[in-house]
Recover the amino acids of this structure.
């Protein structure tokens, strides 16, 4: 098996033929939309393939499975009484984790939902995307075909649609709810900037086409010449994770002396930005820059600045919808707050709708998000700048889907408020990775016990509480995800912090020395 094989090679057809077949399948989505969108009594099947690819330095079977569990929130769609779901993973998900999600289903008998769920582990924990692991095994593809009762009422749900998801859809004869790989250039840093420019969305001053440290140092000096007193720049990979941020290079007290000395000083400052990433981080970063390119950006840093993510959807009939807005109050804060501050949520939503219309005209369907940075000037005005477009489901869209499925609620752009069924406004604070070495001492069953005993668990009566996710990382990696749902931002923050402190305390108690029984 070769990691360089394209899906057309694996299927034995030309890339052009693969594209034609994929487009014919995608044309079915408009007819399936009523099944996908509404609660109804008609049979339908969702094939979930949460395929991701980890960087080599982070690759492990457990880390991969934890990320593949991100779409377990879709199990809540088994509320639809005749919906079926096939959920694929590289390795088997623990039954206690599946039972936890089925237990969250409102108004449904869990055993009835479980009978309509088929878990499909590939039993391959090696690094590499799940979709490739399936495509490289023809018998697995055949088994999936036998699990699909009717291709006309079945669609594939990915995290993002790469060449591999496209090939798997063609191999199975079903469409994908997502934009095909032909739109990938729209989601690079430079491609996103072009979309922003076309739609008159503000963006940071930047220099594109970076391929080496020397390119980056020249770009930094050029930006500093354009913007006197520039405090810092970011070196952003073209295809990097837009929510992780790139390499920050501080320019405070930098005195340009010219020539080689200035370049050495800038390189030393850049190396300092990667110092916490461990041995080899500098070399790995520039290898990626040489391979995919980068952009050097001069962010607008005023009195206060925040990251904002706008979750969007383009439906098969062509509607462009704002689904949610999240913000991250400060650099270094790993949590996202929902909904975003009304002071700027409307402005970034309006800009995202313009971006969405541009993508719709290009032929994009499915989920995507637009990442912004907003800065407030001394007069109190907020200024948004678009950073990047991300096709597919993101780390912020997943907790939103969880809340929407749990509460039957909707986000209202006017006022930036989420209303649950019954009209109550809801907020949450979500952390993708709560981590501590002490968490390795407890199991998923134990953490479920802790949240129940301390009355932290999600309660349908109050539509509030903690929802856990990515639990496969608990005992080996000491990490898990947590979303705290409450009626206000203040209550969500209090619940989140109390849950982290309580679970940390219980985990620390479990780390005590082992004592043999008295004989």
């Amino acid at each position: 098996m070769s990691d360089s094989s394209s899906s057309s090679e694996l299927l034995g057809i030309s890339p052009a033929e693969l594209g034609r077949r994929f487009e014919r399948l995608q044309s079915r989505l408009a007819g399936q939309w009523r099944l996908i969108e509404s609660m109804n009594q008609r049979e339908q099947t969702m094939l979930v393939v949460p395929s991701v690819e980890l960087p080599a330095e982070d690759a492990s079977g457990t880390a991969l499975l934890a990320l593949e569990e991100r779409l377990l929130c879709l199990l809540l769609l088994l509320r639809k009484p005749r919906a079926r779901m096939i959920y694929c993973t590289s390795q088997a998900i623990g039954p206690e984790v599946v039972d936890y999600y089925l237990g969250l289903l409102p108004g449904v008998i869990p055993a009835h939902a479980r009978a309509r769920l088929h878990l499909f582990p590939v039993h391959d924990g090696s690094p590499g995307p799940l979709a490739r692991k399936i495509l490289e095994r023809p018998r697995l593809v055949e088994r999936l075909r036998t699990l699909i009762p009717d291709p006309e009422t079945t669609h594939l749900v990915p995290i993002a649609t790469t060449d591999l998801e496209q090939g798997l859809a063609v191999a199975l004869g079903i469409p994908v709810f997502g934009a095909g790989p032909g739109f990938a250039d729209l989601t690079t840093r430079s491609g996103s900037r072009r979309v922003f420019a076309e739609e008159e969305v503000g963006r940071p001053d930047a220099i594109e086409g970076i391929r080496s440290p020397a390119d980056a140092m020249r770009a930094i000096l050029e930006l500093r010449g354009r913007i006197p007193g520039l405090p810092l720049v970011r070196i952003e990979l073209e295809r990097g994770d837009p929510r992780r941020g790139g390499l920050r290079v501080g320019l405070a007290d930098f005195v340009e002396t010219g020539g080689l000395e200035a370049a050495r000083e800038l390189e030393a400052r850049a190396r300092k930005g990667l110092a916490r990433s461990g041995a080899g981080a500098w070399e790995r970063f520039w290898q990626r820059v040489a391979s995919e390119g980068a952009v050097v950006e001069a962010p607008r840093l005023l009195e206060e600045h925040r990251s904002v993510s706008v979750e969007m959807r383009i439906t098969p009939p062509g509607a462009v919808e704002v689904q949610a807005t999240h913000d991250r109050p400060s650099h270094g804060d790993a949590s996202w707050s929902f909904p975003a501050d009304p002071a700027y949520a409307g402005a970034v939503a309006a800009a995202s709708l313009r971006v969405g219309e541009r993508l719709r005209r290009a032929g994009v369907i499915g989920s995507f998000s637009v990442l912004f940075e907003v800065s407030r000037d001394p007069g109190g005005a907020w200024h948004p700048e678009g950073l990047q477009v991300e096709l597919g489901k993101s780390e912020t869209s997943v907790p939103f889907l969880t809340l929407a499925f749990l509460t039957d609620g909707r986000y209202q752009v006017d006022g930036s408020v989420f209303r649950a069924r019954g009209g109550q406004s809801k907020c949450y604070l979500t952390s993708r990775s709560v981590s501590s070495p002490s968490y390795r001492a407890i199991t998923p069953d134990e953490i479920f016990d802790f949240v129940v005993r301390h009355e932290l668990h999600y309660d349908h009566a109050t539509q509030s509480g903690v929802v856990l996710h990515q639990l496969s990382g608990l005992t080996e990696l000491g990490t898990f995800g947590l979303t705290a749902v409450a009626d206000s931002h203040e209550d969500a923050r209090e619940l989140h912090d109390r849950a982290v402190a309580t679970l940390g305390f219980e985990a620390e108690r479990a780390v005590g020395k082992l004592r043999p029984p008295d004989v």
